[in-house]
Amino acid sequence: MKGLIKMATRMLSLASLFFLSLAVSGQYPTYENRLINDTMPDPYTYEFDIYLLRTGSIPLELVSYTAGIYFDPVVVNGGTITASIVPGSSQLFPAQQPTIVTIGNGSNGTFCLAGLPYYIIRLAGVSPPGAGNGTYIVTDFPGTRVCRIKLTNSLAFAPAPPIQCFNFQATPYNTVVRAYVGGLNTNITIQAFHFITDLTNPLLNLPVPVHTLTGGGIAPAIVGLDGSDAGIRYWLYRDGVSTQWPTTGTGSPFTFNGSPFSSSGVYTSTGWRKATYLTAAMNGPVTIDKNLHVKCFLEGLYAGGSAMNAVSDGSNYVFGPTIADTFHIELKDQTDYHLVFKSPSTNLHTDGTSQVVISHQLSDSYYLVVKHRNSIETWSKFPIPFSGGIINYDFSLAAEKAFGDNMKQLAPGEFGIFTGDVNQDGAVDPNDLGDIDNDSSGFTFGYVVTDLNGDAVVDSNDMGLADNNVSGFVIVVRP
Fold this sequence. Notes:
The model is unreliable at 1-26 (pLDDT under 50). The longest helix is centred in the first third of the chain and has 24 residues, at 2-25. The chain is mainly beta. The chain is 10% helix and 35% strand. The strands form six sheets. Strands 13, 15, 16, 17, 19, 20, 21, 26 and 30 form a nine-stranded mixed β-sheet that branches. The chain is built from three helices and 32 strands. It has three domains: 28-197, Sandwich (Immunoglobulin-like), CATH 2.60.40; 213-284; 290-471, Immunoglobulin-like. The protein is rod-shaped, with a radius of gyration of 40 Å. The protein has helices at residues 2-25, 430-441, 460-471; strands at 31-42, 45-54, 62-71, 81-85, 101-106, 118-123, 144-153, 165-166, 176-181, 184-187, 195-197, 213-215, 217-218, 223-225, 232-238, 241-242, 247-248, 254-255, 265-273, 279-281, 286-295, 297-298, 323-333, 339-342, 346-349, 353-358, 365-371, 378-379, 384-385, 390-394, 408-411, 414-417. Strand 9 and strand 10 form a beta hairpin. Helix 2 runs antiparallel to helix 3 (460-471).
């Protein structure tokens, strides 16, 4: 009798220790079960990862993992579909890595396909390894990869939702996460909030909508799209070469990079549906041309203080109070000096600045030539690179900015282009003086070529400007 009592007492003590151990260490570890990183290498293949992420402070030693994942039969498109596990994709201990995945179907689903026909991915678990031998699930996002599943169809997938949700009913195949809790093989599956579908392909093989490029013009310029779609990534190319990281569609128009582009060229764009092979060229292209800024002063119009007079016709400014006159810019080939480009009549502002639009196709180095109606033709010192979208050249800084140092100092630190070549024969000579003298004698007024200082009167002031340059033997100096 005493032996029986002693045995009963011992059994009670063992049971108490067992339940105490369970009470102390029996809190369930928490986790997230996540579908992520889906891709479509081609129209017939769809892949995605299954991850487990430990979310709490209690270690999660995995016993086994099984999954039933619903997808819409419409996606199969009349083909034959198979499932497989991508070799080497699992981060579980080798003995726990899944090896079997199959496809099942039925006519009356539950959860997200309740009452509807369904297909289901059935990922089988493996035998428990024993406490202390299981994989410990990590807490670093996205977690520990259970495996990567590949679905292969004999026909191109239809544009339908590939993955709907997890199934938690025993029929046809349920999702179960088991862990060692207090050394015991325990079902820790919690359906609500723990099973997350972060897949980027809501519909397979869905075409990429086409939008139209906007912007362009003169560098710096904005380039954008008149619309975009969520889930689409848009690449921008300049002359066929990618210019930046892709911009993700928002469902609204946007500008690439959100700021102007200073590089010239032909801009095109491609839309790419995330994690799929599908792309589409956007309508376009748009072009950004080069922006040439030239600064120069004309001796005849120079007024001092880094400014020129605006030419007059006697009653009004010819081009406005801020426009000194118009002129032409030419680009000459650096080898044989043939004409590459000639600007239309271009405004030269009273502060010496001007802007000329140059084709994006001109990307070599060229001599820059200034031609004004009664000034001496002036070339840049060296060929100027036109590789960028914005080109600046300032003749006014020094005589050495002109080929042959062929400019006149107008004030300390300011240089200008010689005046007086009225007949544009490349020299300021007695022929020009004769033309000016004739108009002066005839009391010529207005916006005329012999009026060197732009005051609408041809007189001794113009004669004096020209005479000084005749005496200085001013001529065109070219390479």
